[in-house]
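Fill in residues.
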C-alpha cells in the first residue's frame, strides 16, 4: 500500500483496462492507486488457470501497443495460454514499475460517495481504508462466475470447480472420471485437455456452439521478428475495425455475390483461423437471416466432415441452427470435435437428457446416473454487469448499482452512470466491450476516460455526474442498433440472457469501436455534454 491513502484516482481491477489506466494516469501526473483482488496483474488470467485455458485473440493484437513493451517481448504461440499471459503481465509490471502503485490480494469491499468532500470513501477486504476523488472500475466482463444451482450439489464428494475459480496449484485430471458442464470457450478448452488424459470424460452440452478453427501456431524468433515489423500497422488498424481487431467485415453484401464466390471467401476466412470467419465475414451476416444461413451451412459442412457418428453430428452441428450463426460469441477449437472419436469421451445433450440432481458420486439426468471424480462447471459468467453489481457500492440516494439497473442498464457512453458521481467504468456495459478485443478496448476506450479526467482537472471541476436524459438517449441508440441485427435472437450473455432472472437487454454497444469513438468525439467536442461538471 502507498504511504498516503488519499488518491486522485483509485482503479479497481488489474486486467488490460486497469493496467492501462494506471500507466496513463501516472504519466498524466495523477496520484493513482490500483486495487486487485487476485495475486498478480492480468485480470482473468489470474483466475482462469484450468487446463487448456488460452486466449481467443491472436497475440499480435492481444498485447499493449506501446513499443517499449512489445519491442522486448517474445510470444511462443499465436494464441497464448494462461501461464504465458501471466508471464507477459509480470513483464509489463516490471518494465513499467507498476507494483509500487498496486495493492494485490486486495478486494474493494465497500464504496460510498461523500457529498461534503466530493470524495469516494473506500474500504478493502484487508481492512484498509482510503479515499479517492475519482474511481475507475475495470473489473471486466467476466469477473463474476456463474454456477447453476443443482439439487444435491452440496452432497457431491469429488472435486467440483468453476473454470474461473480453478485451484491455483492445479488439479490432475489423469485417470479421473471427469464431467464438463457447459460448452462455451472454457468448457471446450478443458474438455480437449481432459479427453487426452482422463479415464472417462462426459461433456454436458445445452446449446450446440458454433466453434471455429483456432489455427494455433508455434511462434519462434522468425515469427516474432516478422510480427514486430507489422505491429505498428496492425495496432493502428484496430481503431478502424468494428471489433478492435486488425481485420474487419467485408463491406459487400453476402447476398450480392455468387454462391461460388461466397464459398471461396468463406473458405479463405476459415483457413485464416481465429475470428476471421466471424468478424471478417460479410457485414450482413449479422443483419440478414438469409446471408447468415449461408454462413451456418458452410460451418455445418466443415464441422460435420470431422465427426464420424451421424447422431453425434446432429447434436454438435444440427441441421437447423439453434439460433443464427455467431450471434453468440463463437469459441475457438483445436481438436474439440475429434475428442468424440476417442473411446473415453461421450457427449450428453441436455436438451434430450436434462440434469435432475447431483449426488455424492455424480450426476443424475432424466435418463441415467453418471459417476464422476470431478465436475467442472464451465457455465460462464454473470457477464458485463456482474463484476460491477457485485461491489458494495451505493449511489447518492443509497441504492446499489444492482438496484439502479434492475429494470435496465443506464450509462452515458458506457463510461459513467447517474447518481454515481466521479465514477468511471472501463470495459463495462454499454461500451464495445464484449464485441471488442480487450486490449483495444483498454487503450481506445481507456483514452476516452483519460481525456475526460484531464478535462475535469484542467477546468478545476471537483465533481461530474452523468445526466439521465443523456443515458436514455444512449440506451435508445443501443436498442435501435441491436434491433437491426440478429443478436437479440439468441439467449446469449451479450443479451444478459444466460443468467436466470436477469433482464434481457443488449448489454454492449453493438455499433462497433470506430462508431463508438466517433460518439465520444462528438460528446467531447460539445464540452463533454451529458457529463454535468461542477
Ligand atoms: P460461456 O461462453 O457463457 O459458456 C457457458 C456454457 O455453459 C454454455 O455452453 C452454456 O450453455 C452452459 N450453461 C450455462 N448454464 C448452464 C446450465 N444451467 N446447465 C447446463 N449448461 C449451462 O462461458 P465461457 O466461460 O465458456 O466463456 C466466456 C467468455 O470467455 C467467452 O465468450 C470468451 O470470450 C472467453 P448455453 O449456450 O447457455 O445453452
Amino acid at each position: 500500500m502507498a504511504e498516503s491513502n488519499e488518491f486522485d484516482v483509485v482503479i479497481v481491477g488489474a486486467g488490460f483496462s486497469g493496467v492501462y489506466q494506471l500507466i496513463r494516469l501516472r504519466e498524466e501526473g495523477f496520484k493513482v492507486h490500483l486495487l486487485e483482488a487476485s495475486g498478480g496483474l492480468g485480470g482473468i488470467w489470474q483466475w482462469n488457470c484450468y487446463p487448456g485455458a488460452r486466449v481467443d485473440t491472436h497475440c499480435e493484437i492481444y498485447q499493449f501497443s506501446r513499443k517499449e513493451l512489445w519491442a522486448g517481448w517474445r510470444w511462443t504461440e499465436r494464441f497464448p495460454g494462461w501461464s504465458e499471459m501471466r508471464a507477459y503481465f509480470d513483464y509489463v509490471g516490471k518494465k513499467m514499475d507498476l507494483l509500487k502503485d498496486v495493492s494485490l490480494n486486495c478486494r474493494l469491499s465497500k464504496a460510498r460517495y461523500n457529498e461534503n468532500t466530493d470524495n469516494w470513501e473506500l474500504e478493502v477486504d484487508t481492512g484498509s481504508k482510503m479515499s479517492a476523488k475519482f474511481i475507475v472500475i475495470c473489473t471486466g466482463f467476466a469477473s463474476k462466475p456463474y454456477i447453476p444451482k443443482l439439487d444435491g450439489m452440496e452432497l457431491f464428494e469429488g472435486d467440483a470447480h468453476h473454470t474461473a475459480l480453478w485451484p491455483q496449484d492445479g488439479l490432475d485430471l489423469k485417470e479421473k472420471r471427469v464431467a464438463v458442464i457447459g460448452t462455451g470457450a472454457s468448457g471446450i478448452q478443458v474438455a480437449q485437455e481432459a479427453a487426452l488424459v482422463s479415464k472417462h470424460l462426459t461433456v454436458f452440452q445445452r446449446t450446440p456452439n458454433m466453434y471455429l478453427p483456432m489455427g494455433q501456431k508455434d511462434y519462434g524468433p522468425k515469427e516474432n521478428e516478422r510480427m514486430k515489423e507489422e505491429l505498428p500497422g496492425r495496432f493502428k488498424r484496430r481503431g478502424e475495425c468494428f471489433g478492435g481487431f486488425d481485420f474487419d467485415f467485408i463491406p459487400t453484401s453476402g447476398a450480392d455475390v455468387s454462391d461460388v464466390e461466397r464459398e471461396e471467401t468463406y473458405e479463405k476466412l476459415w483457413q485464416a483461423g481465429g475470428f476471421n470467419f466471424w468478424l471478417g465475414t460479410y457485414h450482413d451476416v449479422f443483419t440478414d437471416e438469409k446471408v447468415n444461413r449461408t454462413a451456418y451451412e458452410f460451418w455445418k459442412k466443415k464441422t460435420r466432415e470431422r465427426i464420424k457418428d451421424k447422431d453425434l453430428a446432429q447434436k454438435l452441428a444440427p441441421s437447423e441452427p439453434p439460433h443464427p450463426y455467431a450471434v453468440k460469441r463463437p469459441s475457438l477449437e483445436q481438436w474439440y470435435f475429434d475428442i468424440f472419436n476417442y473411446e473415453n469421451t461421450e457427449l450428453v445433450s441436455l436438451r434430450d437428457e436434462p440434469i435432475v440432481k447431483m449426488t455424492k458420486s455424480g450426476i443424475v439426468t432424466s435418463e441415467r446416473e453418471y459417476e464422476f471424480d470431478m465436475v467442472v462447471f464451465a457455465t460462464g459468467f454473470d457477464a458485463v454487469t456482474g463484476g460491477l453489481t457485485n461491489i458494495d457500492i451505493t449511489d447518492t440516494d443509497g441504492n446499489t448499482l444492482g438496484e439502479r439497473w434492475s429494470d435496465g442498464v443506464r450509462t452515458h457512453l458506457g463510461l459513467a452512470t447517474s447518481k454515481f458521481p466521479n465514477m468511471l467504468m472501463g470495459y463495462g456495459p454499454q461500451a464495445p466491450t464484449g464485441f471488442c478485443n480487450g486490449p483495444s478496448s483498454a487503450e481506445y476506450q481507456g483514452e476516452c476516460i483519460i481525456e475526460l479526467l484531464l478535462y475535469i482537472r484542467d477546468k478545476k471541476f471537483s465533481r461530474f455526474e452523468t445526466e439521465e436524459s443523456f443515458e436514455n438517449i444512449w440506451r435508445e441508440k443501443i436498442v435501435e442498433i441491436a434491433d437491426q441485427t440478429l443478436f437479440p435472437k439468441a439467449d446469449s450473455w451479450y443479451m444478459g440472457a444466460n443468467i436466470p432472472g436477469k433482464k434481457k437487454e443488449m448489454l454492449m454497444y453493438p455499433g462497433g469501436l470506430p462508431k463508438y469513438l466517433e460518439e465520444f468525439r462528438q460528446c467531447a467536442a460539445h464540452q463533454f455534454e451529458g457529463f454535468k461538471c461542477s
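The mean pLDDT is 97.
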